[in-house]
What we know:
This protein is an alpha+beta fold. The protein folds into 3 domains: 2-79, no CATH class; 96-220, Orthogonal Bundle (Annexin V, domain 1), CATH 1.10.220.150; 231-400, Immunoglobulin-like (Sandwich), CATH 2.60.40. It is 18% helix and 33% strand. The chain has helices at 72-93, 122-131, 148-157, 160-167, 184-196, 332-341, and strands spanning 2-8, 11-18, 21-24, 35-47, 50-61, 111-113, 118-120, 138-140, 241-253, 265-271, 278-281, 292-302, 308-314, 322-329, 350-355, 367-372, 375-383, 391-400. The strands form 4 sheets. Strands 12-9-18-17-16-15 form a 6-stranded antiparallel beta sheet. Strands 3-2-1-4-5 form a 5-stranded mixed beta sheet. A 4-stranded antiparallel beta sheet has the order 11-10-13-14, with no helix packed on it. The model is unreliable at 1-80 and 208-239 (pLDDT under 50).
Amino acid sequence: MTASAARSSDGVKMVISFGGWKQVSPGINAARDQTKTVGSARLDVQAGGFNQVEPFQLDVVKSSPLYGGKMSNVYYRTERSASVQKRKVKELMLKSDNRICADCGAPDPKWASANIGVFVCLKCSDVHRSLGEDISKVLSVTLDEWSEGDIDSMFEVGGNSYANSIYEAFLPKDYRKPRSNSSYDDRSKFIRSKYETQEFLKPSLRIVSSKMSFSSVESKNSLNYRIDSNSSTKSVESRQFIGDLKVKVVRGSNLAIRDMFSSDPYVILTLGEQAMFQKAQTTVKQSNLNPVWNEELKFSVPENYVTLKLQVYDQDVFSADDIMGEAEIDLQPLITAAMAFGDPELLGNMQIGKWLQTNDNALIDDSTINIIDGKVKQEVFLKLQNVESGEIELELEWTPLDE
């Protein structure tokens, strides 16, 4: 689609072409009582020797200043489209796991690899740029213009923790990743091993195409939530699910005191929203700040799954139960890694992914995802939030539904 404007004897004339169809606006003396909305376009404006070509979202309003030869309305829409694109990228960058560089951990990264789907610091972006755009397309979050394809690629991956759960799935435990003060050579060695030769990725998942992407791994954002047209009369079991999640609540440690000298704790887990909402609860452990549950709770995970929420309460007989802390469990690394590796029964015991600990999540340490005896499992150690003390140990097990 193209649009052009040129000054005629009676004003400014604009030509809009779309799929062979053209509309030619008359000059300023013509009728101005109609509006036509046109989608994405390129604008070629020629007036008084001025030529400007910009991408924009255009509402062709025949009473707009454009028809009087003024360009302010066109500039406004052009800048607005660009600002919307930048805002979407910045919103993704502000997610907790994207506030540190995906490669060295430096705070407040302002650069990104659009096709890999990670946010990186300035120093690491120099190494990424040296890899070439076929491996890493480097863009500034604040300075560069982002295409819709670049933005879609970033959102499809979901950010640093999801990308690292794949690209660092086989990172040796004793491997020293670069830090914010590391040299260029140290960064280069790690980044090239991670993305160029993909040494820490499962061999069968190594990407050989010229465009680096997670095309082989279905991310959360690419899973469209579909409900039957008669869903209002169907049960939750008839909705679309992608797998079953077993959560073993193993134990709690150093839980907060809510009674005189102790507490009577129990755990509530919730998943989903509105009609897809699911809730499960452990038993109550009387007068115990270090309870051992070893109780298994089960959930059916829908296509547009959200975080698993955990809350610990103290049971009271004569008043409302007191909160003893909470935490959220990100299911994305577990499910993404399981999808990437396929049927676990065909594989030996191995590590396939990792949920990384950051200052913005409740993890005590990195949580590894493993195939153990044909099952995809993950151990999770959480520090309870919004409370003076308390830790919870969980074991997750993922089983995808048969196609």
